């Protein structure tokens, strides 16, 4: 932590930094930074971010590119990769097509990188990719190729609730994926964020658009929502900080809240009622509805998501301090992300936040 502070103060004063002393094991070349700090700097690092085209990945790529690090952007859909071009200086953003099943493409994507992030993950299964193929065999494949190619550091993003004994297949495969990654790349850093909120999230947006789906378990399920920019900054701070290799870092939000409270918060911020006339569904009925809805080709609530709606977030203590970050509470940011759900008449009205209920552990 102290080294991180010293390094930052050196970088901001234009002097050589701690990571200049690192050499890459594959080429034995030193990592040398030069140029002024910021957009046009060159940090000397090259980073590949698998899964960067998603919600968290775009913020991470932007933060890393702004530090002057060359970022390799593996993509499946050309349109998803377009937004990255202006995030870094000329030549600093390199887009490459990839398929998680293709070892050669994975090797090409990380050939020149000294740090590899794996964010690839999906909270629903598709006809081509089940949870296992993305979170377990996919993650293992990327980690093994990275180890074989002599990459210095590997950061794997899992989930706060990853557990081999969970009722949810998503959480089970996240836990199994962690094990396989550690077997393939023993020094890998595992990062476990809680449910993230932000502009493109599936939390606040879904609460505002489909409130009835959040009333499962009578809205009593407890979660620890975390701001996506805090998680992205925590991951970006790992680039110059090599002392956290081999660690598992949990990144839950600062408070434990119920879905019931979050619905009240969304209603207070959007100034729209989250009351619904759809009766509260028992778990069996919700699972049956979710199974039926899988016959359409666009993603709707999956049966595993119904299971997750009944599982409280893990109570693991967060490792924020080691990453130099104080996680943000959801209330001060809710208006920024939810104002678009207000009507023109109420667009500038002030917000009166609901009182937080005291929680009893289930
Ligand atoms: N969002 C949360 O609240 C949350 C909380 C805790 C942990 N996490 C984990 O954090 C990571 C990033 O989350 P996110 O919210 O950014 O997820 P996201 O928006 O769903 O993005 C997931 C990324 O993984 C890629 N991906 C998914 N399936 C793939 C496949 N079969 N082959 C290749 N790439 C694939 C996606 O690529 P395409 O763009 O090509 O589809 C995308 O870049 C995930 O591992 C997720 O499980 C998320």
UniProtKB/TrEMBL annotation:
Source organism, top-level taxon: Eukaryota
Record-linked CDD domains: NDUFA9_like_SDR_a (cd05271)
Cellular component aspect of the GO annotation: mitochondrion
Classification via Gene3D superfamilies: NAD(P)-binding Rossmann-like Domain (3.40.50.720)
A Pfam family matched in the record: NAD_binding_10
A GO MF label: protein-containing complex binding
Domain NAD(P)-binding span(s) in chain numbering: 51-196
InterPro entries: ComplexI_NDUFA9_subunit, NAD(P)-bd_dom, NAD(P)-bd_dom_sf
Protein name (Swiss-Prot/TrEMBL): NAD(P)-bd-dom domain-containing protein
Organism of origin: Mycena indigotica
